[in-house]
Fold these 3 entries.
Entry 1:
Amino acid sequence: MNIEAEINEQHTILCQFNYATIYFMGISSLEQQHRDLLTKAKRIVVKVGTRILVDKNGKPNHSSITAITEQLAKLKKSGHEVLLVTSGAVGAGMQILGCKKRPTAIQDLQMAAAIGQVSLMNYYTACFAKWHCKIGQVLLTHADLKSRERHLNVRNTILNLLQHGIIPVINENDVVSCDEIKIGDNDVLSALVTTLIDADLLIILTTPNGLRKPLANGKTERVGYLPKIDKAALAFVSNSKDQFSTGGMGSKLQAAGIAALTGALVVIASGKDHSVIKKVLQGAEVGTLIGNPKAANVLCHRKRWIAFFHKPQGKLIIDQGAAHALLEEGKSLLPIGVREAEGKFSAGTVVNIFAPTGENIGCGLIEYSSKEMQQIKGKPSAEIAKTLGYKNSDTVIHRDNLVLFE
């Protein structure tokens, strides 16, 4: 699976940063400053990958699952709000069905997920029960998060579970997911959940202890801290996967970039360390820490919904004057500033906005369809009604429905 094809184009653009500036700013002091903030995190999302939950043969890794549930239970009992985003349903189903390789046919994947989800939740229920913790299952698709009404319902349900002392166990609903409603993978899902419920911290547990950077001597070293994610950091990635998992380090970095832009801190660390969650909350130097809450341009919930919970259906290429109006003056996008409209989209969907330089500078909910945009692009707003015979709005994308990637 091509990870970048699963993640919306704007997620990458939103995470632009000059990687070299980390060293100029003094990485040790910045890292320590932000690791100290980890000790104050109250609402915590923990994402656990399939490789941690199952062994190389696809069977449940009892020691790992027990260690994770124990750490989460202790966090909850110490006053934290805890959410678990878990993979493993398909892997568990494969084990029950006796599959040696991950199915490729969608109906076989859905069957494995249906069988495995029951097994996985039964196991979690038993493990958490040992610590007198109640859990609630939340299965999501992209359609649940894209629809504004359902989006808010999901948020309210999760917050209500937390308020009643119940640990939400969240997974993508692979039983019904298809390309049109698929989120992508659980790394992305964990970032979206973090964004949805204003979590302070996202911990992504995987096999390596964070991102590793290649050195000139052919060896690698752990990257301790990144304020944001950029293309240079993504270039370090080697997306090795196995038959039981779908994500890789690239997916985890992309997810971290989403969560960090909403003010959360993210730690990518090794779930093989059975005390890793405790260490992260103590501010210990484990994994790769990502984020800079003080510098984050935190979006309101509506603009988060636009930026992160939609899959853009097309793109607009605008002229330099329009780019300046959007970026420097806080204006809406008018049809006169649009050079080209690409893709097939309807009014009310999200499209990406590109400057004449080719840079993706934003996205937004568009007022007109692709067919209508071909007729009104480059024209003054006063000519919309004359051209189309009607007018939805003077703007192509109103500033209230616009998110800028900076």
Entry 2:
Amino acid sequence: MSKPRYDILDGLRGVAALMVLLYHIFNDAKSFFVWPEPVGEFYHSFLGVDFFFILSGFVMGYAYDLRWKDTPRLSSSEGKEPLTLMGFIKRRLIRLHPMVVMGVLVGVVAYLIQGSIRWDGTEVSFQTLLLSALLALFLIPAPASLDVRGYTESFPLNGPHWSLFFEYVGSLLYGLVLHRLPTKWLRVWVACGILSISAFALLNEGGGVAYGWSSEPENFVGGALRMLYAYPMGLLMARMFRQRSPKPLRGHVFLLSSMALVALLGMPSLGYKDANTIYQLVCLLSLFPAIIWYAARGTVSGWHQRAVSFLGRLSYPLYAVHYPVIYLYITWVGRDLHPYQDYMHPWLPALTAFAASILIATLCLLLYDEPLRRKLSGK
């Protein structure tokens, strides 16, 4: 795959990250504040996580599938050193873990600003906070005894890290098993994944696929099923894309694919549990893969390429550090803003949280993540 195609796919990751940010701003504080109509415009933006998983599998498969030392698909035409499991793990750690660490640190700072208390007002000891942070630094889900917020989050200092945990699981699964599977067996895996996530979405009490963030058993299983379908689906798509080598597309591929993604993720609630569930499954099983396939054929150049590339570079830091800002936003709205509703426009705190998240992510990208990754990659 050429560099511009990676730019478009990475740019779409940035679009999805922004939509997830909007989802958290508009939905996670709705119980604390009466928003003006219309409400719930970003109800389905949490599906950006599933888009991340599919896209991650696609990029991993396209970048590494022919490079493994222990598979017959190794191609001498790649011109690169054969890849081992330890080499792959090092690459993934360098790519992902610096922002995991930063996300935990930002989460701790936000928690201290909030007063080191749970949502119910009970105080949390420094020892409990320290242990919770240590687990989070290694992406280990927190047990109930270390849930410093009391909302059953598996990563209570930075909730969205649950998906990074499953991203790590998916990477290990790829390194240990999936890259070795012949394509026909990978198709079987994906078919089983489709059946599993569909059954879960249709049969669980709440409906849909908005699961994975909590340590509750059903929630945890839902998150695992989302990854176990989406990541291998992306890998299968990468193999099919390589085999078919579709003709590159020129024109407004990024614009059109971004508009489609924003429209899908920005869909409001359809009013009924079953309708929302069907919509989510249609996105996961067909529309998201179609967008990725279309975008992978596109090219960008000039300033468009630079803009799309920066959006892609920003996507991971934004996703990794935005939620501590949301915690502060929820605290501010829930405790302090109500007395001022008559004369403070309700969009002001939302815009502040949105801008602060992007600013912090940009600083992390330019001053910490990219410099550290360059240094680690050099070693």
Entry 3:
Amino acid sequence: MFSLKYLIVLVLSSLLFIVSCSSNKKSSDDEFILIGMQGPLTGSIEFYGTQTLGGVELAVSEVNRAGGINGKQVKVIAFDSKGEAKDSLITANSLIEAGVCAVIGESTSGAFLSSRSAFNRHGIPVVSPGATAEGVTEGADYVFRTTLQDSIGAPFLVDYLIDKKGHRNYAIIINTADSYSVSLGDLFRKHLKKRNANIVAEGRIFGEPTDVSVELKPLRGKNIDVVIYSGFHPEGAVIIKEMDRQGIKGILVGADGLQQAGLSPLVGDLGIGTIYYAGFSPNADNDVVRGFNKLASENSLISDDLSAQAYDTTNIIFSVMKKVGTTNCSPESRNKIRSGLLKVRNYQGVAGVLSFDNEGNALKSPFISEIIKTGTGEYSTTVAK
């Protein structure tokens, strides 16, 4: 993973680059193909942004070594949104002013929803490698995502837990400060009811708590097989520790916000058995994934769904640019990129085979991963068959 020092230098360099562009008579488009990236490079969920940026940088390095896009080198302009809605909109406006051809957008749904309309109004294609919530591409012609939709992942995981694991008794915890967590919790709840599973308890947390002892009391003493948390790994870690302290049984389950690479460093062995769905698994048994794992390791990057989907997202944009003949970031060029993205079918990426539907959503299959500890003492995952 890139160091914070590196990221600060990158962001500052990007700012200086934009300033210099505004003062030069010759447009930067005459020299580079400009690609934007925004995400939480600092703050409590900076892991999501740094992993996304890492995947983008891998793809950019490769394409530049191979000669660039239609004879031009690619330059990335990255901005730190901290994963906050207001900062996401500010960084979106900065990328628009910079005149980028396309943007690898926010990796979280809430921030992506905040900034997507600005890109859409200015006709700049924006593709999120991580926004899984419902409706993030609706009514926006220039908005896409390469990640798995929660409406596919959540029911798929519930079916797996019931049919393969035999779990019938569930608790659901949502984060009421996060609209994404609330909507994802509702998806889990609806499918559990559809499958006639038992929802024996529900809990609510708010924001980024460090103590959830009171909030987890409704779960104490209940017969629970699975605790579903519809949020991200920092709060998931607090929940796991409190479950252990209070003797609450059951495995923690959720979406890609609970991914092993973020969770394991915070909880250690307490995270063993945690199950989540995602659009990628570094332990999928194929040569494409093994090749990406090696590439990520050589560049000090963790191979996970964030880095992999960001890598795929960037390469998909590049493949479209090459096909439509992009040599500048004019409105006409951006419109051609947008039209080209809609035609992407059966793209073989490191995160599986992907096609876009007519609303810019990725059509792809989920991976279900369970956190384990290997014989060497390292944390990893197994992939459900």
